[in-house]
Amino acid sequence: MLTTEQRIVVVSAASSLADAAQEGVRRADIIDLPYLRLPPHTPRPFTDYLYFDEGERRSPDCALTPHDCLTSVVAGRGAGSALKSFARYYPWPGTVYIPVLDAPWAHSVLATRKKDPDPEVRIFRALTVALARELGPAVAR
């Protein structure tokens, strides 16, 4: 496990929810957002996690990458969910990141083969773990 973070939703700056960016929202406030569709092969547990187990995916758009998600959000065609650090890594104009107050905090992980002999993989894993230890507390704020 790298970090434990608050869940967020990402909406268009033109959304009626955009003003809640500072105080946050509850799951009941966001359950019916037009969440982006995911590819059919996406495992159900991940889909349920991403979209809070309820509601329907109402967006006409399908997201394969974070960029797909943000492009759709800016266009007002969908909404997405993520961990709080997503906002730091993807600060897109026209998007607003809103904390979900009653969603359980979630873990981010780095999955690699434990004994991978590739030196680049080993270096990447070591750097990632070191950065997570150093920055993890700041991410949680």
Task: Give the helix tally.
Answer: 5
Helix content: 25-40%
Shape, please?
globular
The total count of strands amounts to 5
Mean pLDDT: 87
Class from helix and strand fractions:
alpha+beta
Beta-strand share of residues: 5-15%
Write the H/E string, N to C: EEHHHEHEEH
Q: What's the alpha carbon Rg, rounded to whole Å? A: 16 Å
What does the main sheet amount to? 3 strands, antiparallel
Low-confidence stretches: none
**What is the terminal separation in angstroms?**
17 Å
Biggest sheet strand order reads 3-2-4
What does this structure look like?
With 141 residues, the chain is α+β, with helices and mostly antiparallel strands. The chain contains five helices and five strands; from the N terminus they run E-E-H-H-H-E-H-E-E-H. It has a three-stranded antiparallel beta sheet. It is globular, with a radius of gyration of 16 Å. It starts with a strand and ends with a helix.
Structure characteristics:
three-stranded antiparallel β-sheet; 5 helices; globular; alpha+beta; 141 residues; two-stranded antiparallel ribbon
TL;DR of this structure?
This protein is an alpha+beta fold and 141 residues long. Helices cover 33% and strands 15% of the residues.
Topology:
Layout: E1 3-5, E2 7-12, H1 27-30, H2 44-50, H3 66-74, E3 80-83, H4 85-89, E4 95-99, E5 106-108, H5 119-140
Antiparallel strand pairs: 1-5, 2-3, 2-4
